[in-house]
From TrEMBL:
Lineage summary: Bacteria, Bacillati, Actinomycetota, Actinomycetes, Kitasatosporales
Domain 2Fe-2S ferredoxin-type intervals: 1-73
UniProt keyword Oxidoreductase present: yes
Cited InterPro entries: 2Fe-2S-bd, 2Fe-2S-bd_dom_sf, 2Fe-2S_ferredoxin-like_sf, 2Fe-2S_ferredoxin-type, 2Fe2S_fd_BS, Aldehyde_Oxdr_Iron-Sulfur, Beta-grasp_dom_sf
Signal peptide annotation: none
Presence of the UniProt keyword Iron in the record: yes
SUPFAM superfamilies linked: 2Fe-2S ferredoxin-like (SSF54292), CO dehydrogenase ISP C-domain like (SSF47741)
Name of the featured protein: 2Fe-2S iron-sulfur cluster-binding protein
């Protein structure tokens, strides 16, 4: 696999999930284990640009895939705009869900900009031209739970990052 833009060869038991490969074999503990069965979103990473629950993926099935974790979003000590927005909007309390929320938001903003429909929009969105409403952000982020209930500030952070991405084209 390519993990955070670095080629990586792993010799794993074929039952190892991507989540355990990241945390236990590569020391990338930014990706969190919440439920370990696809219900909370704490383990969300980007696989070939799409957000996925890493607890539900077998690492051996991802031979050749490009995986991005929360550690791989920043570059040269500069935070990704979504990471910065979460800080600016104080969009966390304990922070346990935050890496998954951030990876999911990066994926959600890309999906919305590329015209993927959501239940809230109910139809194809015009590519890149429409700001995300609060309802759409909440629907697109609904796979990521926050036990601290920091949802109001998470929505503000995602809205700001989405708007900045939209303005940047
Ligand atoms: Fe993967 Fe909860 S740990 S969805
Ligand atoms: Fe604590 Fe979300 S900030 S679970």
């Amino acid at each position: 696999m390519e993990i955070n833009a670095e080629s990586c060869a792993l010799d794993l038991d074929n039952r190892t999930t991507l989540l355990d490969a990241l945390r236990e074999h590569l020391g990338l503990t930014g990706t969190k284990k919440g439920c370990d069965h696809g219900q909370c979103g704490a383990c969300t990473v980007l696989v070939d640009g799409l957000r996925m629950n890493s607890c539900l993926l077998l690492a051996v099935a991802l031979d050749g895939a490009q995986v991005t974790t929360v550690e791989g979003l920043s570059s040269d000590a500069v935070l990704h705009p979504v990471q910065q927005a979460f800080i600016d909007h104080d969009a966390f309390q304990c922070g346990y869900c935050t890496p998954g929320q951030i990876c999911s938001a990066v994926g959600a903003i890309t999906e919305a900009a590329s015209g993927w429909p959501s239940a809230a929009t109910a139809q194809e969105r015009p590519v890149g031209s429409v700001a995300l409403t609060e309802a759409e952000i909440r629907e697109r982020m609904s796979g990521n739970l926050c036990r601290c209930g920091a949802y109001v500030n998470i929505v503000s952070a995602v809205a700001e990052a989405a708007e900045a991405a939209r303005e940047a084209g």
